[in-house]
Design brief:
With 278 residues, this protein is α/β, with parallel strands linked by helices. It has 9 helices and 14 strands. The chain binds zinc ion (ZN) (2 copies).
């Protein structure tokens, strides 16, 4: 059993990651794109929303839950189960979720695991300024994928839990100098750079040197469009890995448009399957 995956959007403007086992079970990690766009993104890869085995929410920031903050949330519209921590549910309900079907809202706390078809999904606690924030590990028999975005800093426990995955979708949010020199308000800079904010390119690189010894690839996610450059992030992370003799391909996920499919037997030509989101 193997995994394939793609991103529909990866930045502070929206986050949504589609993951599928070779047995056909598919899930979304976060659903932070507008409803119609999410429907079109799924259609463009031949998936009906009703085929999804569930949606897993990392935290309740708008760029991860946009399709819930509407009159009839995406999950309710298509009768889908949603999994999130108690902290995330509380935040989300405070923000208002329209006619959300509460009977399909499930709690998945840090360190808990749930089985959806042939996928095993585990939540891991992370440091971020949102109640109950988690990252997810998705496994299908031999293969493991970690989706790690919105992380202010990493703990030894998190590194130990996520070590040895085959694929990493991993945040490289900002270049520290670009962030410091940007015209952003001081309070925002403090938040982004702080231990409950986001990982810099260097922090991501250091974490990945400890995590990615078995990895087949790394996909850089949630890059700041204002305070990072895709080439720079890729250079910093690839260079740091090469210095510790890790020769792992590093890809960048597009900030606002769908990525190609990746994973076993997936090739870049499949880019043509996707329409570019408006
Ligand atoms: Zn985010
Ligand atoms: Zn966030």
């Amino acid at each position: 059993m193997s995994l394939r995956f793609c991103s529909f959007s990866s930045s502070s403007s929206g986050n949504c990651y589609f993951i599928q086992s070779s047995g056909g079970t598919s899930v979304l990690i976060d659903a932070g794109v507008p409803l119609r766009r999410l429907e079109r993104n799924l259609e463009s890869i031949g998936i009906s929303p009703r085929d999804l085995g569930g949606i897993f929410l990392t935290h309740a920031h708008h760029d991860h839950v946009a399709s819930y903050l509407i009159k009839k949330p995406f999950a309710t519209r298509y009768g889908l189960r949603t999994y999130a921590s108690t902290g995330t549910w509380r935040e989300l309900l405070k923000r208002g979720c329209g006619e959300l079907d509460h009977s399909a809202c499930h709690r998945l706390e840090p360190s808990q695991t749930v089985q959806i078809g042939d996928l095993t999904i585990t939540a891991h606690a992370k440091q971020h300024d949102a109640a109950g924030a988690v990252c997810f590990e998705v496994a299908a028999s031999q293969e493991r994928l970690a989706v790690v975005t919105d992380l202010g800093c990493y703990t030894e426990e998190l590194l130990a839990a996520l070590s040895g995955c085959h694929y990493y979708i991993f945040e490289a949010n900002h270049d520290v100098q670009m962030e410091e020199r940007s015209a952003r308000p001081w309070s925002l800079k403090q938040r982004v750079l702080g231990p409950q904010g986001h990982l810099s390119n260097e922090q991501a690189a250091q974490a990945l040197t400890q995590l990615a010894g078995q990895a087949k690839g790394i996909w850089l996610a949630h890059l700041s469009e204002e305070c990072n450059c895709p080439d720079l992030a890729n250079r910093v992370i690839s260079g740091t890995l090469q210095r510790v003799n890790l020769d792992i391909p590093v890809y960048n996920l597009p900030a606002r448009s769908p990525s190609p499919f990746y994973g076993k037997d997936c090739r870049l030509e499949q880019l043509t399957l996707f329409e570019i989101a408006p």
